[in-house]
Backbone:
């Protein structure tokens, strides 16, 4: 699954990161209070499926698409 020219790798500490934490990590939002509003107003896909749960757990090799950017979760 690949939507654009560049897929950015985001390294996390195993075993997972929650979607809301991920959005902060990649500078899509500034605070946890923005998670719910951001997910309600922007299309976020996890592994090609629309996702709006801020508590959704992301694991290694999951792919996230948001605001025309693509990310792959890694654990190095």
Residues:
């Amino acid at each position: 699954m690949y939507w654009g020219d560049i897929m950015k790798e985001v390294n996390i500490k195993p075993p997972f990161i929650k979607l809301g934490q991920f959005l902060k990590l990649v500078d899509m939002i500034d605070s946890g209070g923005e998670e719910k509003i951001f997910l309600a107003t922007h299309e976020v896909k996890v592994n090609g499926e629309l996702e709006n749960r801020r508590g959704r757990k992301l694991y290694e090799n999951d792919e996230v698409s948001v605001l025309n950017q693509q990310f792959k979760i890694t654990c190095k």
